[in-house]
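Supplementary material to the annual report.
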Amino acid sequence: DAGVIQSPRHEVTEMGQEVTLRCKPISGHDYLFWYRQTMMRGLELLIYFNNNVPIDDSGMPEDRFSAKMPNASFSTLKIQPSEPRDSAVYFCASSSRDRVPEAFFGQGTRLTVV
Amino acid sequence: ELKVEQNPLFLSMQEGKNYTIYCNYSTTSDRLYWYRQDPGKSLESLFVLLSNGAVKQEGRLMASLDTKARLSTLHITAAVHDLSATYFCAVSLDFGNEKLTFGTGTRLTIIP
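Predicted assembly:
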């Protein structure tokens, strides 16, 4: 398996623009997580899905952030409009209830909002 | 609210020495994970600890879990430069759902 795949790896955008981050989880995994990593706040969970259904979005910082999972193999995290304080590395991870209880992380998307 | 604390935050040690990183958490859990992160890279799973008294070893790294004390340790034996990285512990409260709360991380630098 290729692991969790995220795109793009790097994104530079201007303040006010819409940004969409993409994630393909490991095939067969039924949980998908979006995390954000910053120097100030460390690694924090934004939202997670179970069987494509959002379960907990309490970590989503503002209404500017939204996430979807239209099918088992694809998820998006959208920021609209983006702000400089959104600059961070965004990680997607997936896990399976029926396999080894372990979350596998993608390579991350480094977002810079100028 | 679950809180996960690691110490130290920074650790600089010489090659060949031994040291321990500590991870304390605030809520009862028997699911603890250790990850490694190299600069600019993703998180690599090192250990999965799923019960009180669990001990796992891989090379120069050994992790243990004491659920009663809500404490996990990551012990480094005879450190080598390749172990330089940031190490995170993370705790999950929900069975079958690896929703993780991470510690602050320990940045380890091994000096030749």
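The radius of gyration of chain B is 13 Å.
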